[in-house]
Amino acid sequence: MEQSWRQAKGLFFTLLSAPLFWLVIFFVAPLSIVWLYSFGENQGLVDVAFTGTWSNYGKIFKGLRWLDFSDALYVNLFLKSFWFAGLTTFICLVLGFPVALAITFAPERWKPWLLLMVMLPFWTNLLVRTYALIAVLRTKGFVNMGLESVHNGINSVSGGALGAFDPLPLLNNNFAVVFGLVFVNLPFMILPLYSALDRLDRSLLEASLDLGAGHVRTMFNVVVPMAGAGIASGILITFIPALGSYLTPDMLGGPESQMIANVIESQFKRANNWPFGAALSFILVYLTFIAIALQGVFQARSQARSQGGRA
Amino acid sequence: MSQSPSRKLPPAPLEYLRRWPIQLSLVVVAIFLYAPLLTMMLFSFNDDRSITQWSGFSLKYYKQAFQNESLIIAFMNSLTIAFFSTLISLVVGAMAAIVLWRFRFGGKTLFDGTMAVPIVVPEICLGVGMLVFFAKVLPWPQGLPWPLNLGAIIIAHVSFSFPFVAVVVRARLGSFNRELEEAAKDLGASDFRALMDVVIPHIQPSLIAGALLAFTLSLDDFVITFFTAGPDTVTFPVKVYSMVRFSVTPEVNAASTILIVVTVLLTFLALKFQGSSALTAGHDGGAGEKK
Fold it and tell me: What is the ipTM of this complex?
């Protein structure tokens, strides 16, 4: 049982002091200042005055009309980021689920190695991983070189039926950004999926298979409902970093594939409009909190359901 | 289950690893995750300036990388920052974990919840927070002697690392039998003494795991450092980023390969230290703890 802090005041205050100090001074304070800035206005070149204005948030929604987003520059930016992050999460789920399943039901002595296979890229520097994709995707990259040799092979057999090789534009566009985001975030999806699947009661799966359901049907009717909370946390853990990605769109994307984080960066660095950048950052923070709250509700529900089932 | 089943038998219902769609997906994901990294490492040994056309083996880009003074300085900066950030994160994170595990106090939920925010909040938000903080509230003096000039980056790294350490340590504390600490106190140990001699030895594996996590997080970070670093405090990822902007050459590949090798070696060392069961921690019924 936990002890009341009054019973060991000295120890309590000693242990609490450093973490509390660090959290308040070096985390809460910086974010609070950014939050205040989001209600501020530029004054002169370097100063920001806290005027309590909502104009920075207003600017984000400027041009927004009912059911018409075409003129709302920043709303479009958010929608595009949502689309990229959502698509990334979906692809990660589709790619990651079979892998998590394989690891879960692998023989014990293989498990650590398979997990290591998933985690090793995870330990590798994000910048290095993103950089490695440039050589794969660019016009004279590995994918196009492979396609070119296949193309030339067909040409030499058929006597030039396909014509000259046209390299696919794979880098500096939206495709490259989603490809990069999947590459970077896939381990984030596999690990929570594995930990959810590993906790399942296997006899229920066996029962479903014994009673004549196929593997696909067992997955959707037994595994997915039981591992629902784990799947939801995998989705969340992939979606949130993907939504706030800076490096991947910056290095792999083109001018039209910038995401929220890139615009925030340019507001703070080149455009030097800190209040507006602060407002954009805080919209991202609010979205994160909303996503976590939704996941909390989902988890509570699924817990209540599983407890109700047992009672 | 002492004998492994013969390959000739059809796969058992739950032997998914022996079914071809699962095997195919495993192979596809493995190629997807590793091919870009392995080719990047391979082309760091290329003789030519190209990073996609192989023309012969050479170590000249490693020589270049080791003679690139600003790259070496950036690498040393990164290691120094990671070292200090790990040290502080470990102490602060462990203290937070113990206080949350051991005590009941008003505002505990708030404290606990706030500790989780650095883990979930997008990096870019923390990055701009640090930019504003070190520009307006605590301007870090320029021209301080090394390693004090890295202070701002170290502070920023601790802020996002120590909550991770706290999570790891707290998970381990869950398996601690509180009666042991009470027994120590019954036998005359003070609160502090009981903590140091009974609780700390129990959480030692999680301290190592937490330290490794903090070290990697710090070495890996680009975005937050990018917003906190000044012109004379360039870290390795920031340096590689500016090299990539300038040109894509095998020298960048060589530098990246060195970083990958360092991280992989550290990971293996830590796993060896803890036993490979650390990978399946919490899923093997605690078999690894009895090592």
Answer: 0.85
